[in-house]
Specification:
6-stranded mixed beta sheet, 422 residues, 5-stranded parallel beta sheet, alpha/beta
């Protein structure tokens, strides 16, 4: 039985940023997951990030290897704002960050977590079991994809979520309907058309609502620039995430749900102009007939129409929910105090189960809308790591050196170096 102080579940921006902070301390930890997996496998190739360059970095205690620094070293186009970052660039940057600051990452998947007398028992897909005093859940959007009820009865060959399609080439020559109006929907609609598919976009709202491009007028307006957008409300969410916890629950939930709602990015406007759009239509039913799917739509006036397609892609976002985290044993999951099916968290991201922490989108209802974005790691990683370091007590200073592995080492070369066998 291997034992360690902290286990981090997930290796996206939040998990890697927390690990990069702990690696500078003497806290023994292990981190499990595939680096940048959601970005590499759940986002369509060819898309660009919605966030500005300055808000798209991972976070290390000394601010080293930002996205801008990486792009300059690699001679890649970059701007603090106004120049969209390609997904491929961001993924390569994330992998470089991991290799430099989190070389101890173990590319194993956590299959189950349950409470134990000493804290938690973490089971891996390799059959290994790890005992940990504390566990950080940093799985990002994994398991949270949302499929509207009207589409849930269709066989998988006729309907899928946008997170299932990093590669769009199989849709070449196919008739595809994309449902949704946010960045995922507009991005995948344009990319599908570029891949040779016949595409139509169906949206519930009567307007598409693309974000406005940067302009002189916007720069002159007295609105602060933040990592989640230029507005005073966004400034509050970014700078007062701890205070956000103390707001009335009803207000918190509404702001998380409505602030920065679904909207495509300004730089996709030209591509969207070429995509046929059925605006103001809500899918109310669907059925498969032969090798086609019939999608029933209803507009705001109650008029209905039926359209046919080979496939429907629901680009309908993600809804964080505790009951979707199936690797948490039911006995553990039901003991977590929750609101709106998300954990109620302390000021240092700890749930009502001592030693169990949550960061990323599932922390939004406690810390605000900024947690929905990779930018949220800038707040979460240092705050959580400071708490973990303080709570761990004095450790053998040699462990800090073990954590700070040479940048050329890898998890494969150094398996389990951060675990202490007792």
């Amino acid at each position: 039985m291997h034992r360690t102080d902290v286990v981090i579940v997930g290796a996206g921006p939040n998990g890697l940023s927390v690990a990069a902070h702990l690696a500078q301390s003497d806290v023994p930890f292990r981190i499990f997951g595939r680096p940048m997996e959601n970005w590499l496998t759940r986002m369509p190739r060819g898309m660009h990030l919605k966030s500005d360059g300055f808000a798209s970095s991972l976070y290390q205690p000394h601010g080293r290897l930002t996205l801008g620094e990486y792009c300059r070293k690699e001679n890649l186009p970059y701007a603090e704002a106004g120049l969209p970052t390609p997904l491929d660039t961001f993924c390569r940057y994330g992998l470089a960050f991991q290799q430099k600051f989190v070389p101890m990452l173990e590319q194993k998947m956590v299959s189950a977590i349950e409470r134990s007398p000493s804290g938690f028992t973490v089971e891996l897909d390799t059959g290994e079991t790890v005992e940990a005093r504390r566990v950080i859940v940093a799985t990002g959007i994994t398991n949270f994809n949302h499929l509207p009820p009207s589409l849930q009865g269709l066989p998988s060959m006729f309907v899928s979520h946008s997170s299932e399609h990093a590669d769009l080439t199989p849709f070449r020559g196919k008739d595809v309907v994309v449902v949704g109006r946010g960045a995922s929907a507009t991005d995948i609609a344009v990319l599908l058309q570029e891949a040779g598919a016949k595409v139509r976009l169906v949206t519930r709202k009567a307007t598409l609502g693309l974000n406005s491009p940067p302009s002189l007028k916007q720069r002159l307006l007295p609105r602060p620039r933040t990592g989640i957008g230029p507005s005073w409300k966004s400034w509050f969410f970014v700078n007062f995430a701890t205070l956000f916890r103390h707001l009335p629950e009803k207000r918190r939930l509404k702001w998380v749900q409505t602030h920065l709602g679904p909207a495509g990015c300004w730089f996709i406007a030209d591509g969207m102009a070429r995509v046929p759009q059925l605006l103001g239509n809500t899918p109310v039913g669907a059925k498969a007939v032969g090798n086609r799917v019939l999608l029933d739509l209803m507009n705001g006036e109650g008029r209905r129409q039926t359209i046919e397609a080979d496939h429907v892609i629901a680009a309908t976002g993600y809804r964080p929910a505790l009951d979707r985290l199936t690797f948490l044993r039911p006995s553990l999951r039901v003991s977590i105090r929750s609101t709106a099916n998300t954990p109620v968290l302390s000021s240092h991201f700890e749930s009502s189960v001592p030693g169990l922490y949550f960061v990323g989108p599932i922390a939004s209802n406690s810390f605000g809308p900024s947690m929905r974005f990779a930018f949220g790691a800038k707040y979460a990683a240092p705050r959580l790591s400071r708490h973990l370091i303080a709570a761990s007590g004095t450790r053998d200073p040699s462990q800090a050196q073990a954590n700070r592995a040479p940048t050329g080492s890898s998890a494969r070369e150094r398996p389990g170096r951060l675990a202490t066998d007792r």
